[in-house]
Amino acid sequence: MSLLISADELAESIRHGEKLTILACLWRPGEGASERQFKGDHIPNSLFCDPARHLAMAPSSRQGRNPLPSRQTLRLAFHELGLDLAHQIVVYDDNKSLMAARAWWVLTWAGVPGVKMLDGGYQAWLQSGRQGAGGPGNLAHRNQLVPNPGQLPTVTMDDMYALPDDVVVIDARERNRFIGRKERLDLKAGHIPGAVNLPLEELVHPNGTFLPAAELRQKFEHVGVEDPAKVVVYSGSGLHSAATIFAMHHCGLPGAAHYVGGWSQWCATPTNAVQRSL
User: Fold this and answer.
1) Sheet of 231-234: strands edge to edge?
2) CB–CB of 130/42 below 8 Å?
3) Which of 2, 83, 147, 228 satisfies CB 3.0 to 4.6 Å to 74 for a cystine?
4) Are 232 and 148 in contact (CB under 8 A)?
């Protein structure tokens, strides 16, 4: 079963009244801005998923910019989003699928089966000739799922210190951040020593849809991926890395571990080594 759903497929599912939970994972800076964006424009029948409140904990230098949500946070999210096994969950966003990928990864990690992502996000929906809707969105279904975190592999910063030599560490950020040429978000520029760079931008078309599975596999093989169980992926704060892990699952390479703390946690620790250039 594909992890992606096209705008046409989603529209047909809505038209035929199929059981769906469509989560609009939208983020804007500022108090209440994300929900206001949702209420102004979203795919019909969507519910608002707040990435900052449903998919993460408060940022800190010790844990990174988007720490893993606690079990209590997950219970709140499951309840407010009305997650159950009877409805197909589809996640989307309007920002290069970064928040949708975070939602896919967190929900899958927390034990929700079969989550799909709208390929190309809200832009694909609009480009297919369809319109958005305003207002508060759909009512949540009755929650019947209990969070069960740990269903996808993760590593901590301590684990990163002790990785075997045969593990491929992929940095999913853009190349200029990887080589230390610029850094707008975190305390230092550069990357974790020994990491290889595979920017998320190389895994998608210019319109934001993912490359075909065969091409994705070639991209991962090119940076040394043979056994996905011997791969760790990180980014700045777990967004680009979640999308990269999604791409691995989509092309038949599940099993990579996620260093969720990522560069934002690593570079905030003064004793950690930093590598610049290729």
Assistant:
1) 196-197, 168-171, 231-234, 257-258
2) no
3) 147
4) no
In this predicted structure, what is the pLDDT of residue 183? Answer: 83
Among candidate residues 112, 200, 181, the one with its CA nearest the CA of residue 148:
112
Biggest CA pair distance of the chain: 57
Asked if residues 211 and 235 have their Cβ atoms less than 8 Å apart, the reply is no
First to last CA, the chain: 37
Going by the DSSP 8-state scheme, the letter that residue 59 receives in this structure is -
Q: What pLDDT sits at residue 278?
A: 67
Query: Is the per-residue pLDDT at 1 higher than 80?
Result: no
Would you state the structure tokens that stand for residue 41, as one six-digit string?
Answer: 């424009």
Yes or no: say if 34 and 50 are a contact pair by the CB < 8 Å rule. yes
Question: What are the phi and psi torsion angles at 118 (to 5°)?
Answer: -70, 115
Give the model confidence (pLDDT) of 27-52 as tens digits: 999 999 999 999 999 999 999 999 99
Asked if residue 173 and residue 82 are part of one domain, the reply reads no
User: Which helix (DSSP H) or strand (DSSP E) does residue 54 occupy?
Assistant: helix 51-54
Considering the domain architecture, whether residues 168 and 122 belong to the same structural domain is answered as no
Give the domain extent around 218: 157-266
Q: What is the pTM of this model?
A: 0.96
Burial of 58-97, coded b for 16+ CB within 10 Å and e otherwise, reads eeeeebbbbbbbeeebbbbbbebbbbbeeebbbbbbbbbb
- Burial letters for 18-53: b for 16+ Cβ neighbours within 10 Å, e otherwise? eebbbbbbbbeeeeeebbebbeebbbbebbbbbbee
Question: Among 6, 228, 253, which Cα is nearest to 116's?
Answer: 6
Q: What is the pLDDT of residue 265?
A: 96
Say how far apart CA 208 and CA 268 lie, in whole Å. Answer: 31
Q: Which helix (H) or strand (E) holds 166?
A: none
